[in-house]
Amino acid sequence: MPAAGGGPAQEAVTDRPARVWQTAYRAAWVHPVSAPAIADGAVIVEGDRIVWVGPASQAPGLPQARVVELGDVALTPGLVNAHTHLDLTVMRGLFDGTAFFDWIRGIVAARAQLTEDETLDSARLGAVEALEAGITTVADTSPTAASLQAMAELGLRGTAYLEVFGPDPGQVEGSLAALRSLMAHAAPYAAPLQRLGVSPHAPYSVSDALYRAVADWARANGLPLATHVAESDAEQALVTEGSGAFAAFLGGRGIPVAPRARTPVALLGAAGVLGPETLAIHCVRCDADDVAMLRATGTAVATCPASNAYFGHGRAPIPAFRTAGIRVGIGTDSMASNARMDLRAEAEAAGQDRAWLAAATMDGAAALGLGDRVGRLETGYCADLAAFPLAPGARGEPAGAPARSEEHTSELQSHLNLVCRLLLE
Q1: DSSP state of 283
Q2: pLDDT of 252 above 90
Q3: I want to staple 163 with a disulfide (CB 3.0 to 4.6 A). Which of 22, 125, 143, 285 is the partner?
Q4: Residues with Cβ < 8 Å from 375, sequence gap 6 or more?
Q5: Are 145 and 182 in contact (CB under 8 A)?
Q6: Is 6 left (phi over 0), alpha (psi -120 to 50) or beta?
Q7: Are 75 and 40 in contact (CB under 8 A)?
Q8: For the segment 39-51, what is each residue's pLDDT rounded down to a tens digit?
Q9: Torsion angles phi and psi, residue 17, rounded to 5
Q10: Contact in structure between 366 and 298 (CB atoms under 8 Å)
Q11: What is the phi/psi pair of residue 55, to 5°?
């Protein structure tokens, strides 16, 4: 169980005889999320499942269970980060102040310079930062198996969406073959807490034909799908007008460019990408028709307010999504476009300050199709728990993520940042 704050929770464990199959976690406050907060509460876990939640004074069989006294903390479900790139963690600050198109080109170049071991270390660093922030479930996108391997090693639950690229319609078969090969390579790393998915990257890096082919292949194989969409002005210009920075880049590579759809979301709808197993990432530029299409297809959305602000992309129409009944999860995006994994800050930036914990747990779980397993403290749910310091002046309210723990991460961060900078010079 992660203790947000960069170090282990202070625990006092009873030495009385215990039912070895049950552990009771007792805290000043327990937040089921799906029910009101409980003062002096307890959560009893058997195996990997929650078997009871309520006031400690009413806990059944408490004298026989192993009791972990967490003390003056708020015990919550583990947080759910609906969009990450764990393998980019060491690129934090590397391209700050760069325009979106140039930032992407820089990331591609920097990523290509890292060895496999360095990429894995970067993903491990991201997984550690997630756990330190109370995050126990992530939806990660990556072009390698590094994030999946790091998730499995460190016990992060979630989906590892493997990316596929191919802006040239003539690349479809080659891109699909590469995706199948990557899936076969990654499969052995998946542990029971992780599942594989696919991610046709974005409209500026994936042709309509490849979108359609990947969506069909994912559906045939029962795989969830995630894609970046409706994120920037440059993407909008490419899709609707065949103009802008992305259009110039693709045209320079001899790839025909022309208007493709009314909006990026409409492009996904026409390609058969939208659906209940699809996670649409960002969705900043969505009009009323786009919202209606997302709702009609049952598509979920991952919003990343801090990353969108980093690039000056604007804010997603989250109130419209919620009014329409669209599942919305909160994500931090990569640490190359964010300062830290603070889901409370993300939720507050998304206008969910009064309900940040629900946005960062129950809502995120629903968006990822995991709402029947994680995101709340209820009997039968997975025992993914997080303990937070109490927020000052707020009765029983958990504080958000603390500052990053430099003690654990600074040496590796500095080393890999230096590697990136030297190789790019």
Answers
A1: -
A2: yes
A3: 143
A4: 33, 77, 80, 137, 361, 362, 363, 364, 365, 366, 381
A5: yes
A6: left
A7: no
A8: 999 999 999 999 9
A9: -55, 135
A10: no
A11: -65, 135
* Burial of 17 (C-beta count, 10 Å sphere; 0-12/13-18/19+): exposed
Burial label for 386, CB within 10 Å (0-12, 13-18, 19+), is buried
Backbone phi and psi for residue 384, each to the nearest 5 degrees, phi listed first? -90, 105
What's this model's pTM, rounded to 2 decimal places?
0.92
Are 342 and 400 within 8 A, CB to CB?
yes
Tally the residues of the chain.
Answer: 425
| pLDDT tens-place string over residues 368-402 | 999 999 999 999 999 999 999 997 766 777 876 65
The pLDDT, as a whole number, for residue 420 is 52
Residue with tokens 């989250």: 318
Between CA 298 and CA 400 the distance in angstroms is 30
The residue written with tokens 């693709």 in the block is: 250
pLDDT at 413: 52
Buried b (16+ CB within 10 A) or exposed e, 340-354: bbbbbbbbbbbebee
Pick from 385, 416, 324: which is nearest to 31 by CA?
385
Q: d(Cα 386, Cα 264) in Å, to the nearest integer?
A: 37
Can you read off the two tokens belonging to residue 110?
């920097």
Report d(CA 278, CA 216) in Å as an integer: 12
What DSSP string runs through 117-179?
Answer: HHHHHHHHHHHHHHHHTTEEEEEEEESSSHHHHHHHHHT-EEEEEEEE-B-SGGGHHHHHHHH
Report the pLDDT value the prediction gives residue 198, as an integer from 0 to 100.
98
Q: Are 24 and 67 in contact (CB under 8 A)?
A: yes
